[in-house]
């Protein structure tokens, strides 16, 4: 089963902004073609990246970035 075939992963990928979706697809292709990773590893990595990007896309980082915490 490809990473996009899992229903919840496909739904999450489809909800990503187009640019993010393209980056995830390129990352998936890199893992398969360049790194030769197994489909299970690719599915796990892509799932983690999709979850992270979806989470970051869903939160408002502007207030956190606007604060000066001395960093």
From TrEMBL:
<feature type="domain" description="Core-binding (CB)">
    <location>
        <begin position="18"/>
        <end position="71"/>
    </location>
</feature>
<protein>
    <submittedName>
        <fullName>Site-specific integrase</fullName>
    </submittedName>
</protein>
<dbReference type="InterPro" id="IPR004107">
    <property type="entry name" value="Integrase_SAM-like_N"/>
</dbReference>
<dbReference type="InterPro" id="IPR044068">
    <property type="entry name" value="CB"/>
</dbReference>
<dbReference type="GO" id="GO:0003677">
    <property type="term" value="F:DNA binding"/>
</dbReference>
<keyword id="KW-0238">DNA-binding</keyword>
<dbReference type="InterPro" id="IPR010998">
    <property type="entry name" value="Integrase_recombinase_N"/>
</dbReference>
<dbReference type="Pfam" id="PF02899">
    <property type="entry name" value="Phage_int_SAM_1"/>
</dbReference>
<dbReference type="GO" id="GO:0015074">
    <property type="term" value="P:DNA integration"/>
</dbReference>
């Amino acid at each position: 089963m490809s990473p996009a075939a899992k229903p919840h992963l496909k739904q999450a990928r489809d909800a990503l902004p187009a640019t993010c979706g393209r980056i995830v697809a390129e990352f998936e292709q890199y893992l398969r073609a360049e790194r030769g990773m197994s489909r299970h590893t690719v599915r796990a990595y892509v799932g983690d990246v999709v979850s992270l990007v979806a989470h970051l896309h869903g939160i408002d980082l502007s207030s956190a970035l606007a604060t000066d915490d001395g960093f």
